[in-house]
Structure formats: C-alpha cells, structure tokens
Amino acid sequence: MANPTNVRKSFTHGEIGLAIALTILALFSLIVAGKAHSSAYSFHAMLFALVSGYFVYKIIDRFYSRPAELPPLEIDGKPNYNYGPVKFATIAALFWGVAGFTVGLYAALELAFPVLNFDLPWISFGRIRPLHTSAVIFAFGGNVLLATSFYVVQRTCRARMVGDLAPWFVVIGYNFFIVIAGTGYLLGITQSKEYAEPEWYSDLWLTIVWVVYLIVFMGTILRRKEPHIYVANWFFLAFILTIAVLHLGNNAAIPVSVFSSKSYIVWAGVQDAMVQWWYGHNA
C-alpha cells in the first residue's frame, strides 16, 4: 500500500512566476546588450542577462533538491521563522560597510595625493566619492534595514515571512541593484543627482524590488498571530512607503531609448533642484 504521507512534488506559483519573469528579462537583456549605444550600458545589460539566467537555473536546481512540501509555518506549535534572507542581508551589510569605508578612505587619500587616481577615469575622485557615499548609505545602511525589518516583523508578529522566494528576491535583488549602481558610477553612467545617481534602468529595477519588499512586509503583518502591531513595524512600514514616494518622485525620468543609458528628468530647472533636495533631505 502506498504511503499516504507521500506528496507529489510540483513547482510552486512563485517558482514558476519568478522563473518566467527572469527568463524574459534575460532574453530582453541580451537584445539590449547587442544594440546598446555604449559599451558600458552593454556591460550592464549582460550582467542582467547572466544573473537572470543563473537564478533561473538555481530555481530549477532548488526544485529538484528540495522536499515536496515547503517549510511549514509552524513546528510543534511554534513559528518556523525564515532567517535565511535575514542572514544574507546581515552579511551583505558587513561586506558593503567595509567596502564603502575603504573607498571613502581612498577618496580622502586622493585629495591629499592626487596622483593616486593614476589618470584613470574609473577611479577619479568625481566617481569614487559618490561610490563611497552610496555604498555606506544604500549598500550598508539599506541592507541593515532589510535585515532588521525582516527579523523584527517575524518575531513581533509571531509568524513566518510571507512568500517562499519573495524574501530572497528582495535581498538578492536589492544587492544586485547595488552592484549595477556602483559599477555605473565607475563607468560614468549617472544622472548627476546627488544620492540619486543611478540611471533609469537601475531605478526601475529598484522599484520592482521595493514593491515586492512592501508586499512581503505587509503580508507578514496580515499573517500575524500577535493581535497587537508593535510600533517598530509601524516605523518600518513608514520607512518603506516614504522611500517609495521619494524614489519615484525624484527619479521620474524619460529614457532617450531602451538601448541607451541616458535619460532626462521630467522636472525642469528650479523644480528639479527643489525635488532633488526634498528627496536628499528626507531619504
């Protein structure tokens, strides 16, 4: 007689949806890489293609190596917390913190010893200074906020995070944004807005990641076993929504072409400056 506990393994909706989305992104990125107006933009398009293709493979590989049933929400009546993404973001924060402070030190040394730029455009002061600030603020600080918010919302709600792959998409997708933005600074791909240097395609990717972040966070609160919503979660939710509004408002731009990294901000002149520092002083 067959064991009634045997469950037939099948792809989840999340695995199917993410694999299809990444496959489309990989193919589209290959087209963009072949027709890009600059070698730097082509390089970024190839990064999108390679990373997307790699994670399609990882989703399939994960399917064949995981149990038929996904991790339970509870074990012996206690929440089965998902700490994987929390640990990933914590380690990423430590790495980017060291990297960001190191780049800051090198930028300071260039002020005292200009010869240290070796006449190379990629490590000129004008390019590594924003790399330093963004690495410390967004890479280090951003990963700290991801890690703490994902940890706190689970523990205070006494519930496992919503989504099987969604939390991983948030932390990995956010760090991929950091890589694209950081290499863009060194390659000269920026929109010349302080603390908002990444160009339109980087901003678009971050927007997608941020929407999923909001869904995971809100979904976990709605799943809570704790009747009271702790004040920490209200602060985290306010942070997520505020950054979304600031990001969308300040980075509203029209690309020259899908094959070009260049874009033009929709705000003009004084309005652009006002929106920029509304963003800069609140982000």
User: Could you state the order of secondary-structure elements as H and E?
Assistant: HHEEHHHHHEEH
| First-last Cα distance | 62 Å
Quickly name the level 1 CATH class of the largest domain: Mainly Alpha
Bulk shape? globular
Any guess at the CATH architecture of the largest domain?
Answer: Up-down Bundle
Largest sheet: 2 strands, antiparallel
Which strand-content bin applies to the residues?
under 5%
Counting H and I runs of at least 4 residues, what is the number of helices?
Answer: 8
Summarize model confidence as the mean pLDDT: 96
**What is the SS-derived class?**
mainly alpha
CATH fold group of the largest domain: Cytochrome C Oxidase, Chain A
| Biggest sheet, spatial arrangement of strands | 1-2
As an assembly, this protein is: single chain
Strand tally is 4
What is Rg? 21 Å
Share of residues in helices: 55-70%
User: What is the count of distinct domains?
Assistant: 2
Q: What would you give as the CATH superfamily of the largest domain?
A: Cytochrome c oxidase-like, subunit I domain
Unreliable stretches (pLDDT < 50, length at least 5) are none
Observed structural traits:
8 helices, mainly alpha, 283 residues, 67% helix, Cytochrome C Oxidase, Chain A, two-stranded antiparallel ribbon
